[in-house]
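Researcher: Quick test of sequence recovery. Tokens follow.
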């Protein structure tokens, strides 16, 4: 039994004291109304109406049930209205998982403008390099960097991922620029903790695998950038992180004619698959894409 439909039919029949009038108001057959009432009475184990040839009269049980049925239907309507409002006007808590370095440089600087535009949204940023299970962690949205596995999550591309080989100004002043990839072994490298010593570089159709001399390993991208700016060695950095230092002269590119093959690696918004994406998630994605632009502002 469709209990919601049955309750609605019961309340309409009680208000009009007639199955036919209830059927007309609900745009269903009178026999359907009669069936709903019969199923309710069987479920409750009590008669709801005293029936005559022309009219209906509520029994004592029917009057009690009507009182509660009205309240249930009213509360359900309020629940539907409140829930629909969440998707009409962005509001509520938005939980976002973001890599720490990207958050510091490209999310937090815009967050004040976002909250000013959407004052009914509260934001919780979880800064974590780990790719958490969004559903298990209760996350609405995540920013992921790299190649996405086939996880069933919905994804929207932010920008391509580009890597650049950088050194600080003091380091560049103390060392002669390498003439080609094979000379990189002569210089100390700042590497990620989980990064191997080999690096693949490409120039047009040419590819070259080179070995780096890892003098320092750090598990944080921002720390790698700072170490490079302080002259501790050369670092492979994403362009979205290195661009500001390159413009300001704190960093210099080495071997700019050689590229690090990125394949399908990119920056992505990912979120759990749902038939209707909540307005708070859509608002955050649209806002960030508006701010980042196409191409992204760090390329300008």
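Model:
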């Amino acid at each position: 039994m469709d209990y919601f439909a049955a309750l609605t039919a019961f309340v309409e029949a009680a208000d009009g004291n007639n199955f036919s009038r209830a059927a007309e108001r609900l745009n269903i057959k009178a026999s359907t109304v009669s069936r709903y009432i019969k199923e309710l009475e069987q479920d409750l184990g009590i008669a709801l109406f005293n029936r005559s040839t022309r009219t209906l009269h509520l029994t004592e049980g029917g009057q009690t049930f009507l009182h509660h049925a009205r309240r249930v239907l009213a509360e359900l309507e309020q629940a539907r209205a409140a829930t629909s409002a969440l998707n009409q006007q962005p509001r509520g808590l938005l939980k976002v998982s973001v890599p720490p370095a990207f958050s510091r440089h490209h999310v937090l600087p815009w967050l004040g403008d976002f909250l000013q535009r959407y004052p009914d949204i509260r934001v919780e940023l979880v800064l974590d390099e780990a790719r958490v299970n969004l559903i298990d962690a209760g996350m609405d949205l995540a920013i992921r960097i790299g190649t996405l596995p086939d996880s069933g999550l919905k994804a929207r591309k932010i920008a391509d991922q580009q890597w650049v080989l950088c050194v600080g100004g003091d380091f560049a002043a103390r060392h002669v620029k390498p003439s080609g990839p094979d000379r990189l072994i002569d210089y100390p490298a700042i590497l990620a903790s989980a990064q191997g010593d080999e690096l693949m570089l490409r120039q047009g159709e040419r590819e070259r695998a080179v070995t780096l001399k890892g003098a320092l390993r750090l598990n944080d991208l921002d720390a790698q950038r700072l170490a490079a700016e302080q002259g501790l060695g050369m670092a492979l950095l994403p362009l979205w992180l290195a661009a500001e230092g390159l413009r300001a002269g704190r960093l210099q590119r080495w071997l700019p004619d050689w590229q690090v093959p990125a394949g399908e690696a990119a920056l992505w918004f990912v979120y759990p698959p749902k038939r209707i994406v909540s307005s708070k998630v859509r608002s955050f994605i649209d806002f960030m894409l508006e701010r980042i632009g196409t191409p992204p502002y760090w390329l300008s």
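The mean pLDDT is 90.
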